[in-house]
Amino acid sequence: MKIDGRCHCGHVRYEAEIDPERVMICHCTDCQSLSGSAFRTVAQTRSGGFRLLAGEPRIYRKISEAGTIRLQSFCPECGSPIYSTGEGDEPKVYSLRAGTIRQRAELVPKLQLWSRSSLAWLPGLADIPATATQP
Description:
Radius of gyration: 15 Å
Strand content: 35-45%
Order of helices and strands: EEHEEEEEE
Largest sheet: 8 strands, mixed
Low-confidence stretches: none
Oligomer: single chain
Shape: globular
Number of strands: 8
Mean pLDDT: 94
């Protein structure tokens, strides 16, 4: 599936070819901290399927629980997380942050990772009152 996306301010823009079967929710504590949320939703690109169109993201090198290096990219202007990927040369797979993808409403997660770190209140989310906009 061909998608495109951008950070909040538009400084970083990209296009990619993703596998819609590889849309996932990650509950790991690193994703909670790095996203500032209860979990992170990502869409993985096909190998070599990412192309930066504008801007240059800033990179933070994170060491995973398994000891591998994951490059975390974000916009240097607005701070929006853009993607993570491994070190090394192309072609590689990018885990795009779903909130930056223009077609995000079409991307239904197929798998949840690190469920042992899932916050206990998530299953009851549907029972919490909701408003269409900020009251």
